[in-house]
Fold this sequence. Notes:
By secondary structure, the protein is an alpha/beta fold. The chain has one helix at residues 123-142, and strands at residues 8-11, 17-20, 24-34, 38-41, 45-52, 56-59, 69-72, 75-78, 86-89, 95-97. The protein is elongated and about 80 Å long. The N and C termini lie far apart (80 Å).
Amino acid sequence: MAIGTGGATVEVTAANVLIISGTIDGVGNTLTKTGTGTLTLSGTPNYGTLHTTDGITNVDSSFIGGTSTVNADATTNFGVSQTLAALNIGNGAVVTFGAGPEAEPGAGATSAFGAATVPEPGSLGLLVVGALGLLGRRSRMARW
């Protein structure tokens, strides 16, 4: 598939799945994914920008050269390691890094830096710390 100088738009409508397994050429040009369906890119991406606007986009191959940009304004799943010039995540978009398009946060998915998910402090722990603070303040006020 070749992307011309004006870019290319791929629309995948609801409940449909489109898999592009060949090389996508268009150095410096933009591929835009629209529609609420699922697009899986398993061929070599050799273009400047991927823009996901709706639905789900699975990227199962690495961008060439580390000069590409991904503008994720919808669910975008990276199934393989990526070297990008930029990753821009829009409001409400979900971006996952894992071992394939089915990877979900908490199911072994990690960030691009290999960091594991770290849970926030538990409510009980915060309650105990707050209670100890209040007791400490009360004992200091009782000495006055």
